[in-house]
Amino acid sequence: MTGTANMRERLEIGGFSFENTRRNQVIAQRGSVVPRAKKTGTTIVGVIYDGGVVLGAVAPSTNSARPFVQKPLTQPATMPYAKNADGKWVSGAGSPVIPAYTSTGGTEEDKSAIEEIILNLANFTNVEEWAAFCATQPADAAFIRPSGNPISMKGLADMMTTNGDITDIDGKLVAINKLDISGDMAYSACTQEASFKYQGKANDDLYVNTYVFKKIDGTWKNVWGQRSTGRPPAEGPITGW
């Protein structure tokens, strides 16, 4: 088996390796217990082409203490890609990574459900997909823009999808600064980053979103949001939490 693996390396042949299949058959024939693979439920594939690499991944987590709910590949919060310190795109198995933080109150189930909402609202590359998630939240949920003017969640989604003013969006969650859960209500303050074009003008903002969540008929929903004024990420992290 080792010779086969070495030959593959010498010939620079890619693809899947099944060299342990025969080993497992021999172990089973001898009456021993065959080693069981630890499944993560995630597939990551890289394809090299002339000029770059195509990276593809799915993001269900079947082995996590707090499993993330699997959604279609196009759902923004389930896209498990990130840029590392060198500016290279990388992918990892399982759920999108949330930087470590300390929450207050609630159960792990409550925390996981609220985190899922935050990820869906913060991580997006396509306004139509983001708007589709917003449609799953209460239609009268209010969002306060940096100007102070309120708008319903539906109105915000319509504004971002119908007139074409906002394009080339790339948003991500930077940190959950605070999450406090009390009964059927919760609030959170999150640092987020978004780059986009508004009427053709490029913007790159680092800002804080404050969210209010309510458990409605047993399911957590976002009912209120407020966005701070953005600032260039080059000015450094938002601190004080």
Task: Note down, in words, how this protein is organized.
The structure is a single chain. With 241 residues, this protein is of the alpha+beta class. The protein has 3 domains: 1-37, no CATH class; 39-97, no CATH class; 98-241, Nuclear Transport Factor 2, Chain: A (Roll), CATH 3.10.450. The chain is 22% helix and 33% strand. The chain has helices spanning 2-11, 20-29, 108-122, 127-134, 153-161, and strands spanning 44-49, 52-57, 81-83, 89-91, 142-144, 150-152, 166-182, 185-198, 201-216, 219-227. The strands form 3 sheets. A 6-stranded mixed β-sheet has the order 6-5-10-9-8-7. A two-stranded antiparallel sheet has the order 1-2. The chain is extended, with a radius of gyration of 22 Å. 20% of the residues are buried. The model is unreliable at 60-79 (pLDDT under 50).
Topology overview:
Layout: H1 2-11, H2 20-29, E1 44-49, E2 52-57, E3 81-83, E4 89-91, H3 108-122, H4 127-134, E5 142-144, E6 150-152, H5 153-161, E7 166-182, E8 185-198, E9 201-216, E10 219-227
Helix pairs in contact: 4-5
Q: Spell the H/E element sequence.
A: HHEEEEHHEEHEEEE
CATH topology of the largest domain: Nuclear Transport Factor 2, Chain: A
What helical percentage do the residues reach? 10-25%
Name the overall outline: extended
Strand content: 25-35%
Question: What value does the Rg take, in angstroms?
Answer: 22 Å
Strand order of the largest sheet: 6-5-10-9-8-7
**How many separate helices?**
5
Just name the CATH architecture of the largest domain: Roll
Overall CATH class of the largest domain: Alpha Beta
